[in-house]
């Protein structure tokens, strides 16, 4: 199933496809594969959810992991603070 919603979200992303790929830490080819319907990794599904502000929820790209958009863990891990 082609993810037209992801394609549209990438098209309106500030900086376009190159910036989206950089922010998602993927290649343009991998993005094209996901848009064409290939399943993203859980980490990429979360990144897509976060970068599109939920317009393309992880529950859409990975319904096997999350049933609803609000089930997708979107917080980025915080680095451990250094002991002083």
Keywords:
mainly alpha, 84 residues, 48% helix
Low-confidence stretches: none
Q: So what's the overall shape?
A: globular
Indicate the structural class.
mainly alpha
Helix content: 40-55%
Bin the strand percentage. under 5%
Which sequence of SSEs, written as H and E, runs from N to C? HHHHH
DSSP E strands, number? 0
What does this structure look like?
It contains 5 helices and no strands. It has helices at residues 4-12, 16-24, 28-35, 42-51, 58-61. The longest helix has 10 residues, at 42-51. It starts with a helix and ends in a 23-residue tail after the last helix.
What is the element layout, followed by pairings?
Blueprint: H1 4-12, H2 16-24, H3 28-35, H4 42-51, H5 58-61
């Amino acid at each position: 199933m082609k993810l037209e919603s992801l394609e549209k979200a990438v098209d309106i992303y500030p900086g376009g496809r190159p910036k989206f790929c950089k922010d998602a830490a993927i290649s343009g080819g991998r993005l094209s594969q996901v848009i064409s319907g290939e399943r993203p990794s859980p980490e990429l599904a979360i990144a897509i959810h976060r970068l599109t502000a939920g317009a393309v929820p992880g529950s859409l790209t990975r319904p096997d992991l999350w049933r609803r958009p609000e089930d997708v863990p979107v917080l980025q891990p915080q680095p451990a603070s250094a002991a002083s």
